[in-house]
Write a structure and sequence with these properties.
The chain is mostly beta strands. Helices cover 7% and strands 68% of the residues. A 10-stranded antiparallel barrel has the order 3-6-7-9-11-12-13-14-15-16. The chain has a 3-stranded antiparallel β-sheet with strand order 5-4-8, with no helix packed on it. A two-stranded antiparallel sheet has the order 1-2. The longest helix is centred in the first third of the chain and has 26 residues.
Length: 351
């Protein structure tokens, strides 16, 4: 009887030991992958909070352009003047982004805030275009019969973006190499666009260069709305991983625009002006892909270095007002504000 009791006690002790070993394996250490019986892979909660501070250098170019003139290039067989539209595009310019996120202790949830600044500008000019058949036709000046001969033009475009986001997210891993981070929150954007062109010519009698036209147009959108997206990374090895983000927002806010034409001192057509303000809806989409390298200084501090490419588009975020030649009516049109280019990111992680 004592032998039977001893054997049963030994079996119970071994079973309890196995259960304890299994519990230790399932519990994991902070930050390790945990595989519960359901087969869903999660990230084990950490016992302390984790701060992430990121800085991004943006080298971007906007695809938005300003069409400032039409330049006649010849006459076809029907006697019609053929023209080429002249546009000024933004140059490649530097911008920046700063963001801070905090991962809450005891969970894999985080809260993140970011601020982005970008200024895009560019200029073009046409000088010394001779002859009446090659007269420059300025934007908004077409069809005015008393407009003097225009033989030169200087055009500028300037676009400024100030944007901020506040989001919350959840970290999830799939297997041992893939990590996902769905997030949602709010996004704010202030997009200020200014287009300007100055037209000039040589006066027939005095031979002096005079102003024949001056075009100024500005548009500013300020809006806020919901934002959602997904970050993803795939571990390659040796600290390297492929990373990517896809996100979007729907912004609602105020669109202010101003449009002015001054035909110059030699023209009889008076100065024209138009101001407009209305509520606008601006969808936004952005995506980025890159290569990330993580270096751990110690168990509590690490650094991420990331190089990638980013594409951003704010739909119908710029209002373009055009007044026809006889000021009978006006036409409102809009265009996208977008930019794309490489970025370099540094992120400090502190537990």
């Amino acid at each position: 009887m004592k032998g039977i009791i001893f054997k049963m006690s030994k079996k119970i002790t071994l079973a309890l030991a196995m259960i304890g070993l299994s519990s230790t394996a399932l519990a994991g250490a902070p930050g390790n992958n945990v595989v519960p019986p359901s087969g869903i892979t999660l990230i084990a909660p950490v016992s302390t909070g984790n701060w992430n501070i990121g800085l991004e250098a943006l080298y971007m170019q906007s695809d938005t352009n300003f069409q400032y003139a039409s330049l006649p290039v010849g006459i076809n067989e029907d006697g019609e003047i053929q023209t080429n539209n002249q546009t000024v595009n933004s140059d490649w310019n530097w911008g920046g982004e700063v963001d801070v996120s905090y991962i809450f202790p005891g969970s894999a949830r985080d809260i993140s805030g970011s601020y982005t600044y970008l200024n895009q500008d560019g200029s073009e000019s046409i000088t010394d275009v001779p002859g009446p058949t090659t007269k420059i036709i300025g934007v908004g000046l077409t069809g005015i019969p008393d407009l003097p001969l225009t033989t030169g033009v200087d055009a500028d475009v300037d676009q400024t973006l100030n944007a901020a986001t506040l989001t919350v997210g959840q970290f999830v891993t799939v297997g041992n190499r893939v990590g996902l981070h769905p997030f949602g929150g709010l996004q704010f954007a202030d997009i200020d666009t200014r287009n300007q062109a100055r037209y000039d010519a040589v006066a027939p009698i005095s031979g002096q260069e005079v102003l024949t036209g001056n075009y100024n147009a500005s548009s500013e959108f300020e809006g806020i709305g919901p934002r959602a997206g997904m970050d993803a990374h795939v571990l390659i090895g040796c600290g390297f991983s492929l990373v990517g983000t896809m996100a979007g927002a729907l912004l609602v806010g105020n669109m202010d625009s101003n449009f002015n034409i001054d035909e110059g001192a030699l023209a009889a057509t008076p100065f024209k002006s138009k101001d407009d303000s209305y509520t606008a809806i601006v969808p936004e989409l952005d995506a980025k892909v890159g290569l990330n390298y993580m270096y751990a200084f110690n168990p509590a501090t690490s650094m991420d270095v990331q190089l990638g490419y980013e594409v951003v588009d704010y739909f119908n975020a710029e209002n373009n007002d055009f007044i026809d030649s006889f000021a009978v009516n006006s036409v409102n049109s809009s265009s996208d504000f977008n930019y794309n280019g490489p970025y370099l990111r540094l992120q400090l992680n502190v537990v």
